[in-house]
Amino acid sequence: MKKILLPLALLLVALAYFVITKQMRPAPAPMGGMSGMSGGMSGMAMQPAPAGLDLARKRRSDAGLFVAEIAPQSPDFDRNTIHAWRLTLKDAAGNPVSGAEIKADGGMPQHNHGLPTRPEVTPGAEPGQYLIRGLRFHMPGWWELRLDVAAGAQHDSLTFNLMLE
Ligand SMILES: [Cu+2]
After folding, report:
1. What is the Cα–Cα distance from 40 to 35, expressed in whole angstroms?
2. Which H helix or E strand runs over 41?
3. Rounded to the nearest whole angstrom, what is the distance from the C-alpha of residue 19 to the centroid of ligand 1?
4. Per-residue pLDDT for the chain (165 aa), expressed as one digit of tens each?
């Protein structure tokens, strides 16, 4: 009896896997035998972002210590060319936070890859102003931009969601 149970269990797992993957992925369009890498890549790029994604460009940090607002330095920026975003950083009381050490990171959660560049955050001209330099987003879709903020003894982080075409 035990000899039958193991193959049966494996068969069930395989069947369940087949059913689940079949339901999660839209059926690929027939491509006349050319369903290689390029088909797979474009399929990834077209993946819709999760519904209800918070796309606010002004948000409170995870522990509530800071409020940060971001905006592209140039409104008509080309996401696939290295460019900069402005960052305004305030404390919970609304006072600008200058002199913070800020690290920027990010990636595409649906593709399991990070940023293609290593952006740097430098102080801007006004109090609480910074520039996130060296950003490039090489694919359209849902990107996360994470900021790690250290100001004096205060340390907090926050994550923006960007939908880029
Ligand atoms: Cu990607």
Report:
1. 7
2. helix 37-45
3. 26
4. 556 565 655 555 554 555 444 444 444 444 433 333 444 454 455 678 899 999 999 999 999 999 999 999 999 999 999 999 999 999 999 999 999 999 999 999 999 999 999 999 999 999 999 999 999 999 999 999 999 999 999 999 999 999 999
Distance 59 CA to ligand 1 centre (A): 24
Which residues crowd ion ligand 1, with CB under 5 Å?
A: 108, 111, 139
Q: What is the CA radius of gyration of the chain?
A: 22
Q: How far is the CA of 95 from the centre of ligand 1 (A)?
A: 36
The single-letter code of the amino acid at 128 is: G
- CATH number for 58-164: choose from 3.40.50.10090, 3.40.50.720, 2.60.40.3340, 3.40.50.150: 2.60.40.3340
Q: How far is the CA of 117 from the centre of ligand 1 (A)?
A: 13
State the pTM of this model. Answer: 0.73
- Provide the token pair at 20: 């689940």
